[in-house]
What we know:
By secondary structure, the chain is an alpha+beta fold. The protein has a single domain (about 10-145), classed as Transposase IS200-like (Alpha-Beta Plaits). The protein has helices at about 30-40, 70-85, 110-115, 120, 130-140; strands at about 10-15, 45-50, 55-60, 100-105. The chain has a 4-stranded antiparallel β-sheet with strand order 2-3-1-4, with helices on both faces. Strand 2 and strand 3 (about 55-60) form a beta hairpin. Helix 1 (about 30-40) packs across helix 2. The longest helix is centred in the middle third of the chain and has 18 residues, at about 70-85. The chain starts with 8 loop residues before the first strand and ends in a 17-residue tail after the last helix.
Amino acid sequence: MANTYTQLNIHAVFVVKGRANLLNDKIRHDVFRYISGILKNLGQFPLAVNGYKDHVHIFFEMSTTKSLSDILRDVKSNSSKWINENSLIKGRFEWQEGYAAFSYAKSQRNTVIRYIENQEQHHKRRSFRDEYLDLLKKFDMEYNVDYLFEFYDDL
């Protein structure tokens, strides 16, 4: 659309169903690379895709051609289909319902990219629960504890 200009930097987090540690060292980087490709195919600009054994962080410059919920639906459904079709894990792979998403200014991009790129080291010191709840608090987001991701001791 002519005369439409946007700068939307979105950081989204979603988890493996049941918080299972299925994104092991063997497949994790291939899955993240595939998710980056999905974003590109959806007309989005991936800035960082990484995570740990049970969750994913994606950071991308969002085009206004699709809604955030449609983008994340497509990322999750296409990546789980790819994981299952290629038998990357034993059994059936699924993402848990829902996600969290946060917006950042362009001046914050490098900080967010570094944070996402260092997920493996980050989770040697800090649980996913603490990380996730801190993000919700940092962005002053109201939430219902009944609808949070399942949390376990993950350190």
